[in-house]
Specification:
The structure is a single chain. The protein is an alpha/beta fold. It is 46% helix and 16% strand. It has helices spanning 30-45, 67-70, 75-81, 85-92, 109-116, 146-151, 153-162, 168-174, 186-199, 202-214, 220-233, 238-248, and strands spanning 6-11, 14-19, 51-55, 60-62, 98-102, 105-107, 119-123, 127-129, 166-167, 179-181. A 6-stranded mixed beta sheet has the order 1-2-3-5-7-10, with helices on both faces. It has a 4-stranded mixed beta sheet with strand order 4-6-8-9. Helix 1 (30-45) runs parallel beside helix 4 (85-92). The longest helix has 16 residues, at 30-45. The protein is globular and about 60 Å long. The structure holds 4-(N,N-dimethylamino)cinnamoyl-COA. Residues 24-25, 27, 63-68, 78, 83-84, 105, 107-109, 131-132, 135, 140-141 line the site of 4-(N,N-dimethylamino)cinnamoyl-COA (DAK).
Length: 258
């Protein structure tokens, strides 16, 4: 598929996906979601790709779903068309780690897209928000759910009910983002993290993603049993032998995803 609203670059085992609708601050429309879902599925199946970085522009990661596109839609249309539904499901099915590198606005669906990634690295200029309330609607792709799990009820209620934005420092204090860096360092930091991940056994990184995500779905006892069983299963891999041997031989492990 030839993309018009995103740019995909695959280099050194990293797929860098850049949202690219600069005139609309990367507002998410049907085309962008279709292309993004296609690119994510392609990165999942491309054996050269070991980690994905999703980013936007310096001014905006994404300023939300495209308001012009949504304005005249009826309930029946959004319900029957399941606007964005299949694309969101496709992105959530990606098993390789995804890092969001966020600069500028990450609002509404843009904040939700960043939260669908496995962790967020933010520039000092990042601003997160769920301002859908100002439009007479509410968050619809996780802004009341993932945000609450990330920052707790008080801040999630505050942001969703008032529509106020959270800056990068507050987002880091609240646990929404893992690191905050100066704007010029954002991509270096995100790509550096992606390279670190790409050096590991992909069996481990995919298992870790699945296990951490499991903690959002099941009670603690069940999550701990799941974690233990997956841990056990990694002893069936050559990479476990290589990782532990390499440590004892004081050399860098050469993982082969086997
Ligand atoms: N949609 C469409 N166009 C947008 C946009 C958006 N969300 N955000 C910005 N733009 C456009 C502006 O209209 C403007 O276009 P022109 O006038 O130049 O043609 C251009 O981008 C530059 O924006 P501004 O001139 O406004 O730039 P400023 O620096 O003054 O302000 C801003 C930046 C980010 C504060 C402001 O643009 C803003 O407040 N944008 C809207 C933010 C927002 O309300 N976001 C939430 C959108 S609603 C669903 C689930 C979820 C959703 C949808 C469906 N389903 C399950 C079906 C999600 C909904 C949302 O995200």
């Amino acid at each position: 598929m030839a993309y018009e609203t995103i740019i995909v670059e695959v280099e050194d085992h990293i797929a860098k996906v850049t949202l690219n609708r600069p005139d609309a601050l990367n507002a998410i429309n049907d085309q962008l979601m279709t292309e993004l879902a296609d690119a994510m599925a392609a990165a999942q199946t491309d054996s050269k790709v070991r980690c994905i970085v999703l980013t936007g522009s310096e001014k905006a990661f994404a300023a939300g779903a495209d308001i012009a596109m949504m304005k005249d839609k009826t309930y029946v249309e959004v319900f029957t068309e399941d606007l964005f539904g299949p694309e969101i499901d496709a992105i959530n099915r990606v098993r390789k780690p995804i890092i969001a590198a966020v600069s500028g606005y990450a609002l509404g669906g843009g904040c939700e897209l960043a939260m669908m990634c496995d962790f967020i690295i933010a520039s000092e200029t990042a601003k997160f928000g769920q301002p859908e309330v100002n439009l007479g609607v509410m968050a619809g792709i996780g802004g009341t759910q993932r945000l609450t799990k990330a920052v707790g009820k008080a801040k999630a209620m505050d942001m969703n009910l008032t529509g106020r934005f959270m800056d990068a420092a507050e987002a880091e204090r609240s646990g929404l983002v893992s690191r905050v860096v100066p704007p010029k360092k954002l991509m270096e930091e995100a790509m550096g993290a992606a390279h670190k991940i790409a050096e590991k056994s992909m069996i481990s990184t995919m298992a870790i993603k699945e296990a951490v995500n499991k903690s959002f779905e099941v009670p603690l006892r069940e999550g701990l049993v799941f974690e233990r069983r997956v841990f056990h299963s990694l002893f069936a891999t050559e990479d476990q032998k290589e990782g532990m041997e390499a440590f004892l031989e004081k050399r860098t492990a050469q993982f082969r995803d086997k």
